[in-house]
Amino acid sequence: MLLLPPSLVPASPMPKLSHIYNFSVSMSVSSPSLCRFSNPIPSIRPLLLSHHFSSLSTPPTKLRSLLSISLQSSFRSSHFEIRASHSDTIQTSQTKAFVVAEDERFGNKQVISITPQLYNYILSNTREPEILRELREETATMRGSQMQVSPDQAQLLAMLVQILGAKRCIEVGVYTGYSSLAVALVLPGFGQLVAIERDAKCLEIAKRYYQRAGVSHKVDVKHALAVDALKSLILNGEACSYDFAFVDAEKRMYSEYFELLLQLVRVGGVIVIDNVLWHGKVADPLLNDPKTVSIRNFNKDLFEDKRVSISMVPIGDGIMICRKN
Ligand SMILES: C[S@@+](CC[C@H](N)C(=O)[O-])C[C@H]1O[C@@H](n2cnc3c(N)ncnc32)[C@H](O)[C@@H]1O
């Protein structure tokens, strides 16, 4: 049975039949004279001759079975290989990315926003270690599971740690440990992550997963209020000794966490703050509940703060990446 490679068949929900698919297929046949064509799809004939075709209005799963039947009956004893890829060329309103800016002032750059379909695509291109997947799934059954960072966010945090070559990290707000485990996994064996959390029950889960992942020796769990724990690190003489910090705890305390972390992180070190877009509320001047106002003011302060370089990134609920100058 000849099957096209899985890459030909989209993993996410089947697009509608109205789509047009572009396929580029390369094929090598050891002895073309052995070919006997009884081809149900006219556009496959040029493929066999020219080794490629495109714009076929047939959904990939149907194409796959048609090709299988066709090729089985067409080749008796020849070796052949098919490589294929596909892409949509026509987008429906469902699949179209939402263009949020196309402004002349910014060179007509099209800026798109994430759609559910696009986000699925991002997740299908996100590498999530098995142990993190298990933790995420266990946490999903718990109250507050929406608090954990998304897999694509965790991947970015881990990558920042790797790019920095970070050895000493801090996390403020551990919950069940998803983001801290992502960081601990990429720290070198002698690396250290100070993981601060006030909720003992959550920490039990986090510690179980650090253990299972074999990273317990890298995580210094502090069951404490964040401000107290950060102040004691400073009192302990650890100022300017950390490479990376991630803030994901009480939103109204962000300014205080930031000031303490700025003392603890070295020049060139990075502080990442989660939820800076606060479900989009920060951009709506009519919304003025205390948490929204607090994050909005915090973002404004960071924008004006020359002690750090900043980059606001719309991933998850929005993160601010700050580099200490
Ligand atoms: C958004 S969750 C953290 C999610 C975590 N980063 C993850 O990806 O799974 C926030 C956590 O911060 C903790 N927290 C809130 N205020 C705190 C404080 N003042 N001190 C220590 N932990 C705090 C909460 O108990 C909660 O578990």
* Major beta sheet summary: 7 strands, mixed
Helix content: 25-40%
Structural class by secondary-structure content: alpha/beta
What is the total tally of β strands?
11
Bound molecules: S-adenosylmethionine
Strand order of the largest sheet: 7-6-5-8-9-11-10
CATH class label of the domain at 129-324 = Alpha Beta
H/E element order: EHHEEEHHHEHEHEHEHEHEE
Q: Specify the CATH architecture of the domain at 129-324.
A: 3-Layer(aba) Sandwich
CATH superfamily of the domain at 129-324: Vaccinia Virus protein VP39
Radius of gyration: 26 Å
Low-confidence stretches: 1-59, 72-90
In round numbers, the mean pLDDT is 81
Strand percent estimate:
15-25%
Bulk shape:
globular
- Kindly report the CATH topology of the domain at 129-324: Rossmann fold
Tally of helical segments: 10
How far the N terminus sits from the C terminus, by CA atoms, comes to 61 Å
In terms of quaternary structure, what is this?
Answer: single chain
GO molecular function: O-methyltransferase activity; S-adenosylmethionine-dependent methyltransferase activity
Organism: Cinnamomum micranthum f. kanehirae
Protein name: O-methyltransferase MdmC-like protein isoform X1
Keywords: Methyltransferase, S-adenosyl-L-methionine, Transferase
Commentary on this structure:
The radius of gyration is 26 Å and the shape is globular. The chain has a seven-stranded mixed sheet with strand order 7-6-5-8-9-11-10, sandwiched between helices. Strands 1-2 form a two-stranded antiparallel ribbon. The chain has a two-stranded antiparallel sheet with strand order 3-4. It has a domain at 129-324: Vaccinia Virus protein VP39 (Rossmann fold, 3-Layer(aba) Sandwich), CATH 3.40.50.150. The protein contains ten helices and eleven strands. Mean pLDDT is 81; it is low at 1-59 and 72-90. With 325 residues, the chain is of the alpha/beta class. Bound molecules: S-adenosylmethionine. This is O-methyltransferase MdmC-like protein isoform X1. Keywords: Methyltransferase, S-adenosyl-L-methionine, Transferase. InterPro entries: Cation-dep_OMT, SAM-dependent_MTases_sf, SAM_O-MeTrfase.
